[in-house]
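Usage

Read records sequentially. Each one opens with the input sequence:
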Amino acid sequence: MEKTFKIFVDFDGTITKIDCGEAFGNRFGNKEKNDEVIAEWIKGGVSSTEVWKIMLQYIQPFNQNDFDEFISRIEIDETFVPFTKFCWQNNFNLMVLSDGFDLYIKKILGREGLGNVKVYCNRLSVNEKNEYVLNFPYGDEECKLCGNCKRNHILTNSADEDYLIYIGDGYSDKCPVQYCDFIFAKGALLKYCEVNRITYFPFDNFDDVAIKLAELNGRKRLKKKFQAQVNRKNVFEAG
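and closes with the structure output:
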């Protein structure tokens, strides 16, 4: 029977070469204050929604040209576009899960010809008074780590027969990897997996991921991660 792979990919620092949300706050706001609140978030002192609210307090209104110029300088991993084609050719379902904002995510993906990629993220807009409006449509009252609950997207968009793949690099990825069968990690996520003895594949770019996924797909028998299955089952039973 053909395997069904559901692939969930972080955006900031994974698809892009930098953390766009942090860069956005530093470019138009107060870097010193941002560094303080991000450090507090990493320690678990504040939630990501609180981080965004604090960062946006220091962002001054800017014109569209400045924002477009900022976006134009953000580079993505050169191997990501070929990776999306690889997924399409192999009938792998690819989704982007981000604790960042649609204000920049959709512009960057659209620029790269990837406007049709499914994205779940937070929302940031500017109203008629030139005020920033935050919206966290995918939050979870029981989860204080992220404004966008990546775990819930993984569970909602998967079935028992699916093999769940997660690709990420940061602190907002610590929760979703608990529910996936195969993890590709770098940066802070890699360190987290090592400390917590979570099995993972290290990667530098999406070519590395594609090579490993092709190998996994070619195996006659592929075991799902037992603990991830237990974690998924526990959530469904609790709900």
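Summary fields computed downstream for this record:
- The mean pLDDT is 92.
- The chain has ten helices and seven strands.
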